[in-house]
Amino acid sequence: MGNSLIWLQSYRNVKVLFILKKRFVKTLTVAHFSILPAKQIIMKKIFTLIFSSLILLVCAFKPLAGLDDVIAALNTGNATELAKYVDDNIEINLPDKSDSYSRTQAVMILRDFFSNNGVKSFEVKHKGTNGNSEFCIGELNTKSGTYRTTVFMISKNGKQLVREIRFQSK
User: CATH says 67-169 is which class?
Assistant: First the structure.
């Protein structure tokens, strides 16, 4: 610690840590004397350890954005918002057609499907994970009827992306 002298001494059944620091200011020598009880030092170390652990846990278990945002987009029938979570190629299964599309094509097809059917809400029936992928099964309620909807997402470059979405008439 540079110009410091540290020692631990017991005084009236209390362990005291003495820290003597010397600092040179021009030609004067200034001494700083600190008395910290051992219990206080231990408590500071415990507090630091707990605080560091909490920060690590919060950062490490941050959920990947994706599935909840996709559900919100389905709930409002917002194809543009849904497109943010679509993979480069996506398989879309609609009651009248089924194919693999690029992201741009998928946005147009989903926008057309949502506007033609008038989305009212989306109700999640089941959500889950399988390895690095997520899925959701729910019901898309529209003005023209209810569709059983299944969304499959994959993890790509640390991001969850929709790989397949199915709409089946009930």
Answer: alpha beta
